[in-house]
Amino acid sequence: MSLNYLEIQKIIDELNINGSTLQLFKAVDYDSFVFNFYKKEENTFLMVGIGTLPRIHTITIKPEYLKSPHNLVEFFKANLLGATVQKIEQPDSNRIIKITLSRDSITFFIFIRLWAGFSNIIITDSNNTILHLHKKSSKKNEQPGELFIIPPQKNNTKEYSLQNHNYPSYNSFIKNEYNRISREINNQKLQNKLIAERIKKETEINKTLKGLYKRLKIYKGVNKYKLYGDLILSNIHNIKKGDSSVTVQDYSTSQIVNIPLDPKIKPDENSLHYYKMYKKSQSGLDITQGQISKLEEALKNIEVDSNNLGIEIKQQKVIKTTPGLSYTYKEWSFLIGRNAKENEALLRSWVKGNDIWMHVRDFPGGYLFIKNVKGKTIPLEILIIGANLALFYSKAKNSGKGDVMYTQVKYLRRVKKGKPGEVIPSMDKNLFITLNKEILEKFRTLTQT
Where does the pLDDT of residue 97 fall: very low under 50, low under 70, confident under 90, or very high at 90 and above? Predict the structure, then answer.
């Protein structure tokens, strides 16, 4: 998936970072980074990927950051953190984002180029002289000290468009699309890895089995050692010390057998030597057969596992998502359960005592939760948005108005032997709500997580 210039323009049009402060820049991996812009209690976390999946979009779930040092991150820390964003734009519809920042009266440009195979993050001064960049290229003359030139727009007759979606913003749509593609790529990598491991194990087992089969063939002749010992004892009167072999008749088959002897030891000691070889070989035969049996069983199990690779991969969870719907506005998160099952799941695993619970009084419908922000009191604006959402996702939606009760989760009591999600609130308050089109429109611009 590659973003076209219209999609990039739509994504940056939805950003509200002009006048914000660049507070954080961290690496998720070698080619993926997170910008954090802060303005009037509004945090914007922007994901930028310049690897195999060039992308840019907002995120609401903080990823795990790269723990090892990263050269580009160190440059940002030393020179750009604390800078104010003057403007974000897409020059000449070129799939290049330009962010203008100022710090201590010094102007910097950040160029984010989202070209498949040639993506990059380049920082220049106000004269477009490169100060630092993620990927150096002598071929493209992109090195510190060189001039960065945005190529002129190509005369491309291909028509581009925005993709249809049902998300509240194009950023949230692109984020979910890239998460889906990333999961598919990771699943394919995992499948390839499992297949490679299976082939490696099969090769190792088959190599070991080959040696064991050879040893088994040798051990299967162990009975001759017992026969040699018996025949030496039966003919000991015809053998003297110093003989290197003896030729005797096997009375059970009437065949003539030539038995090698150790001339340095006595005849009876030669017989004892063959009995010991018989006993040792018999023990080796049992051990070898046991080893072969275990390895053959292990080989079968590997084959069974390979048939279930798809099932194993599907069980790999990349991102843990909430049941129902979840949205963020400014620093506040809204969780919405649309049925009893989702209500129960949210109550069990996703909300805590200080979070706010909302429900339309006397009407069936989902639960709405507003996550508590440590050290903050929920503003009336957030309560009203939450109440509108609670009403919107209830049976009272058609009437357009209703009473919404709310309280903290810690004041909810489970109904003994009740239905999933059934609770009795206490310490509850009431908001009478008439669905507000402006608030619902604001709801449509919330970022879905």
Answer: very high
